[in-house]
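tool=predict chain=A
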Amino acid sequence: MSNNLLAGKVGIISGALDEKSIAWKVALKAHAEGARFVLTNAPLAMRMGEINKLAEQCEALIIPADATSMEDLEKLFSGAQEHLGGKLDFVLHSIGMSTNIRKGKHYGELNYEWFQKTLDVSALSFHKMLAVAEKLDAMNEWGSVVALSYIAAQRVFPDYTDMSQAKAVLESIARNYGYRFGKLKKVRVNTISQSPTKTTAGTGVGGFDAFYDYADKMSPLGNAPAEACADYCISLFSDLTRYVTMQNLLHDGGFSSTGISEDIVETMTKLHS
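tool=predict ok
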């Protein structure tokens, strides 16, 4: 059911790879709520994904961009404004990649060149997006920028390795640029710390099934699904959250506030009986 929460609003949605992607679901929800937007992803990711199908469903233009390239980002933000007929109201940063995780590197044996690439793609790209948006004066007042994070920025998840640092940097950028953009243009900048989610990227992390099940048993509401995360993104793009900024918003079914759950106690008791 649509409430037209984004009627008349325009923006950029990055990171939609396939139907499992949170960004894909955000695009569908944004379209249903009346928004118009440009889709973007890295050229390589676009060849691997099905973004053309999404673009057709949402009547959206695709502008390929390497989010680590200032030149590409300038073309993206300029092209989006030209196509959409004005400044932007919302931007979704849903970008993350770790070659160390893909190659199964343990935390003590990280390849540092890959580590730097993880930081560049997964975190510094967020700063670059915001800097380009500022430089081009691409955002409307009271606009909203949202990036997707994970609680591994604050807690240890051994197989998440260098992505933990990337998410910590991402959240710090949201606070610091949120202050700057708020003062300049009343633009809000937030991150959403989402439950483990069975996306293509998420399931690539070693031991994913184990910590997905663990988080589900720890959370009184269970893991928040991708569709619910998309709803949360829409609320942050809307005018209903005008004074929410510089926050890392936990969208995890209560996982982050639970010390131990009855389900975990029961499971451990059975193991020891």
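The domain at 10-272 is CATH 3.40.50.720 (Rossmann fold). The chain has a mean pLDDT of 95.
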